[in-house]
Amino acid sequence: TYKISLCKDQPDFVKLSPHQTTLKPRQTQAIKVQRKPMPEEAGDGEYVVRLFVQETAETAGSPGQGQGSSKILRGVSIPIIIRKGSLDSSAEIRNVSLDKDSLRFNLHRSGSKSLFVNLVVMDGHKEIGRLGNVRVFLDRDMRSVSVPLARMPSGSTVTILVKDAADNSEVVRQTAGL
């Protein structure tokens, strides 16, 4: 049995259903997340609500035997992003370095919303690396990333493409020396 809730001190403009469910191994459960009207005093911006799914005590197994035993309850926190108003973000790539089989760099975010991007590394006109679904949330300005490479670059430069994950539009294109 799993308890489904919002983490403490979360805005009250999100409703969940169901609040509890019992799952057998390999069984799934859809969770309905409904956005209620936001309060008038809520200004434009990005709001993050965290959905928390936690195993209940009866699922974690029978109580331990003997002194000093305890149960471990597993859980996961899932961010739900709600945006209000006209928001923007931009990205910048810094500190590019080549590792054994990956390209490492810092992805810097600025603006009023989180970044959700796909990263592509090009050697000339050939793609040699890709990393999808990279997020830099609003509470962070930078994320260190490591893009696995299918092969090492043939020259001393690569082009890094940062593409919006929603519409595949180009956010940044930067040529970097290695």
Features:
single chain; 178 residues; mainly beta; 13 strands; 56% strand; globular
Spatial strand sequence of the major β-sheet: 3-1-5-6
Secondary-structure class: mainly beta
Form type: globular
Share in helix: under 10%
Short description:
The protein contains no helices and 13 strands. The protein has 178 residues and is mostly beta strands.
Secondary structure: elements and pairs:
Elements: E1 2-6, E2 14-17, E3 20-21, E4 32-35, E5 45-55, E6 75-84, E7 89-98, E8 102-111, E9 115-123, E10 126-136, E11 142-148, E12 157-164, E13 170-177
Antiparallel strand pairs: 1-3, 1-5, 2-4, 5-6, 7-8, 8-11, 9-10, 9-12, 12-13
Notes on the structure:
The chain is mainly beta. It is 0% helix and 56% strand. The strands form 4 sheets. A 4-stranded antiparallel sheet has the order 3-1-5-6, with no helix packed on it. A 4-stranded antiparallel sheet has the order 10-9-12-13, with no helix packed on it. Strands 7-8-11 form a 3-stranded antiparallel sheet, with no helix packed on it. The relative contact order is 0.16.
